[in-house]
UniProtKB/TrEMBL annotation:
Record flagged with keyword Hydrolase: yes
Domain (BTB) ranges: 254-356, 420-481
Binding partners and assembly: Interacts with RAB9A and RAB9B (at lower level compared to RAB9A-binding). Interacts with M6PRBP1/TIP47.
Organism lineage string: Eukaryota, Metazoa, Chordata, Craniata, Vertebrata
Keywords: ATP-binding, Golgi apparatus, Hydrolase, Nucleotide-binding, Repeat, Transport
Annotated source species: Pteropus vampyrus (Large flying fox)
Biological role: Rab9-regulated ATPase required for endosome to Golgi transport. Involved in transport vesicle docking at the Golgi complex, possibly by participating in release M6PRBP1/TIP47 from vesicles to permit their efficient docking and fusion at the Golgi. Specifically binds Rab9, but not other Rab proteins. Has low intrinsic ATPase activity due to autoinhibition, which is relieved by Rab9.
Compositionally biased region (Polar residues): 578-587
UniProt protein name: Rho-related BTB domain-containing protein 3
Gene3D superfamilies recorded: P-loop containing nucleotide triphosphate hydrolases, Potassium Channel Kv1.1, Chain A
UniProt keyword ATP-binding, yes or no: yes
C-alpha cells in the first residue's frame, strides 16, 4: 500500500533560490521519525531550452511498511508546459500541499489568479494543506491578528492565506521557520493525520472489494487480461521564445527606431514586445501614466535613458507604413546605446539569459565599471513597480523562467486596444490585435500582412469561418503559447481554426486534449453520453461553413469596392489573386 503526496509551490525567496536552506518537504522527510528509507530523486526536463527539473520525486517508507511517494514541484511552469503530466499528478494525489513564501506577494497573487482555478477543477475530494512559510519582513515577531495591515503592502497577510484556504477547502498553516517544532510537530502532525486518513480509506475500499469477490459462490466470471496502456502523448515542443527572437532579426512590422545621441540609427524594434517585459517602455510609449506606475525609480530611469524625437527631418523617418511611421527614440546614454542591440536580443529571448548578456557587453566595453553600469541600467528597465530591485546575482536569476511568464506578459495586451495596429471584425464585433505578434507566431498571418493582399494595407480585417470565441482562443495561444479548451467541442473548433492558419503545435495540443478527455472517460460513461466524435467534427465544420457562406457575398462586395479605390494598375492583380485564408479553407 502506498501514499502519494504532491507538493506545489516555492516556499523560498523568489530571487535567491540557490542560497536558501532545504525546502519544507525535504526537511520533513529528513527529520520525521515516522519516515525512513533512502531518498531518490527523478528529474525531468522542463522545456527544451532551459535544463532544470520540473519536479523532484522522493520515495521513502512511512509507518514501517507503507510506501511514501512525494512529488515536489517548486515551479508552476508544469501547468503551462506539460498539461498532461500536471493533470495526472493532481488526479493521482492522496494529499496536496501548496506552499508559498509570505514575503513574495507578487508570486502569491500570480499563483492565486492563474493556477488555483486549474487545481480546483482537478481536485477529487483529496485533503489540501496551505503552508505559509517564513517570517514577514516588517515584523520581528509574527502578528497573528487578521486585521493587521502593517505588512500588507509587501507581504502576504494571514487573511489572504485563510481566504485561499477557504476557496480550496484546505487546512491553513503558518510556519515561521523550518525548525523541529514547526516541521516535526506542527506541519508533520497535520500531514501524518491526513496520511492515516488516506490509509484507512484505502483499507476500507480494499476490504469492500474483497467482500464483493467472496460473495460470488456461483459461476465466476472469466478473468480478462488488462488492455495495454496507451503510450503517453506529448505535444510538439514550444518555439515561443525563438519566434519572438526571430522577430527582431526579420525587421517586420517595426514601429519604433532607436537612435544614438548623434542621431544615427542604431536598431529597430517593436513596442508590444518591449512593453511586455518593462514598465519603463510602457511609460515611454504612453501605455501607462506615471500615476499608474507610482514608482519614482522607473520614472527617473525613463527620463534619464530615452527621449522621443518627433522631428520629421530625422533620418529614417520614411520607414514603416506611410500612414503610421515608426516612433523615433533617442538613447541618451552613449554606452547603453552602444550595447543596445545585445540588450534587445536579450529582451526578445525572454530576458533571463543574464550571463550571455554580460559576456556580449564585455566584448564591446573593456572597462568592468562600464559593464556593471550598463547591467544595472538593464535591471532598472526590468524592475517591477513598488518592488525592490533584487536582480543582483545573474547566475541565480539565470535558472528562473523567462519574464514572459513572470513579469508583465503579452496576455496583458490580448484583446485590448493598447498599441494595437490591426482590428479583426468577427460576427459583428471587433477584436484588436498586434501585427508583430501575429507575424512572429503564424506563417499564414506573416504572408497575409507582408504580401500583395488587401490585409497588408488595411487596419480593419474581416474574419470568416470562425466564431468569435474560437478566434479569441486562437489569439490567446499566439500571445501566451498556451490554451485550455472548455470541452471537446470547443477543442474541435479550435483545431479547425489551427488548421486554417497552419499552426501545427496548436493542432497537436487540441488533438492531445481530445484524446486525453476520451481516454479519461470510463467506457460506461462514454457509452451513456452517446458521444460521436465524427458527428461533433461535422458540427464544427458546418458551423464554420455556414459562417463562410453567410458572409461570402459581403467579402466579394468589399473586395470590389477596394479594387475601385486602388489605382488602375493594382486592379487586375487584385481581381486575379486568391485570398490565403480562402485557399487554406478549400484545401
Amino acid at each position: 500500500m502506498s501514499i502519494h503526496i504532491v507538493a506545489l509551490g516555492n516556499e523560498g525567496d523568489s530571487f535567491h533560490q540557490d542560497n536558501r536552506p532545504s525546502g519544507l518537504i525535504r526537511t520533513y522527510l529528513g527529520r520525521s521519525p515516522l519516515v525512513s528509507g533512502d531518498e531518490s530523486s527523478l528529474l525531468l526536463n522542463a522545456t527544451s531550452t532551459v535544463a532544470r527539473p520540473v519536479f523532484t520525486e522522493y520515495q521513502a517508507s512511512a509507518f514501517g511498511n507503507v510506501k511514501l511517494v512525494v512529488h515536489d514541484c517548486p515551479v508552476w511552469d508544469i501547468f503551462d508546459s506539460d498539461w498532461y503530466t500536471s493533470r495526472n499528478l493532481i488526479g493521482g494525489a492522496d494529499i496536496i500541499v501548496i506552499k508559498y513564501s509570505v514575503n513574495d506577494k507578487f508570486s502569491f497573487h500570480e499563483v492565486k489568479d492563474n493556477y488555483i482555478p486549474v487545481i480546483k477543477r482537478a481536485l477529487n475530494s483529496v485533503p489540501v494543506i496551505i503552508a505559509a512559510v517564513g517570517t514577514r519582513q516588517n515584523e520581528e515577531l509574527p502578528c497573528t491578528c487578521p486585521l493587521c495591515t502593517s505588512d500588507r503592502g509587501s507581504c502576504v497577510s494571514t487573511t489572504e492565506g485563510i481566504q485561499l484556504a477557504k476557496e480550496l477547502g484546505a487546512t491553513y498553516l503558518e510556519l515561521h521557520s523550518l525548525d523541529d517544532f514547526y516541521i516535526g510537530k506542527y506541519f508533520g502532525g497535520v500531514l501524518e493525520y491526513f496520511m492515516i486518513q488516506a490509509l484507512n480509506q484505502k483499507t476500507s475500499e480494499k476490504m469492500k472489494k474483497r467482500k464483493m469477490s467472496n460473495s460470488f459462490h456461483g459461476i465466476r466470471p472469466p478473468q480478462l487480461e488488462q488492455p495495454e496502456k496507451m503510450p503517453i502523448l506529448k505535444a510538439e515542443a514550444s518555439h515561443y521564445n525563438s519566434d519572438l527572437n526571430n522577430l527582431l532579426f526579420c525587421c517586420q512590422c517595426v514601429d519604433v527606431v532607436f537612435y544614438n545621441p548623434d542621431l544615427k540609427e542604431v536598431v529597430e524594434a517593436h513596442k508590444i514586445v518591449l512593453c511586455a517585459v518593462s514598465h519603463v517602455f510602457m511609460l515611454l510609449f504612453n501605455v501607462k501614466s506615471p500615476a499608474d506606475i507610482q514608482d519614482s525609480s522607473i520614472i527617473r530611469t525613463t527620463q534619464d535613458l530615452f527621449a522621443i524625437n518627433r522631428d520629421a527631418a530625422l533620418p529614417g523617418a520614411s520607414q514603416g507604413s506611410p500612414g503610421n511611421p515608426p516612433l523615433r527614440v533617442i538613447v541618451k546614454d552613449a554606452l547603453f546605446c552602444l550595447c543596445l542591440s545585445d540588450i534587445l536580443r536579450f529582451i526578445y529571448s525572454g530576458a533571463f539569459q543574464w550571463e550571455e548578456l554580460e559576456e556580449d557587453i564585455r566584448k564591446k566595453l573593456k572597462d568592468s565599471g562600464d559593464v556593471s553600469n550598463v547591467i544595472e541600467k538593464v535591471k532598472c528597465i526590468l524592475k517591477t513597480p513598488g518592488k525592490i530591485n533584487c536582480l543582483r546575482n545573474c547566475k541565480t536569476y539565470q535558472a528562473r523562467k523567462p519574464l514572459w511568464f513572470y513579469n508583465t506578459s503579452l496576455k496583458f495586451f490580448l484583446n485590448k486596444p493598447m498599441l494595437a495596429d490591426v482590428v479583426f471584425e468577427i460576427q459583428g464585433t471587433t477584436v484588436p490585435a498586434h501585427r508583430a505578434i501575429l507575424v512572429a507566431r503564424c506563417e499564414v498571418m506573416a504572408a497575409m500582412f507582408n504580401g500583395n493582399y488587401m490585409e497588408a494595407k488595411s487596419v480593419l480585417i474581416p474574419v470568416y469561418g470562425v466564431s468569435k470565441e474560437t478566434f479569441l482562443s486562437f489569439l490567446e495561444y499566439l500571445y501566451t503559447d498556451s490554451c485550455c479548451p472548455a470541452g471537446i467541442f470547443q477543442a474541435m473548433c479550435l483545431l479547425i481554426c489551427a488548421e486554417m492558419y497552419q499552426v501545427s503545435r496548436l493542432q497537436h495540443i487540441c488533438e492531445l486534449f481530445i484524446i486525453t478527455q476520451l481516454q479519461s472517460m470510463p467506457s460506461r460513461e462514454l457509452a451513456s453520453m452517446n458521444l460521436d466524435i465524427v458527428d461533433l467534427l461535422k458540427k464544427a465544420k458546418n458551423l464554420s461553413t455556414r459562417s463562410w457562406q453567410k458572409t461570402s457575398q459581403e467579402r466579394l462586395h468589399s473586395d470590389q469596392e477596394a479594387a475601385k479605390s486602388l489605382s488602375p494598375a493594382w486592379q487586375p492583380e487584385l481581381e486575379s489573386r486568391p485570398n490565403p485564408q480562402l485557399m487554406n479553407w478549400r484545401n
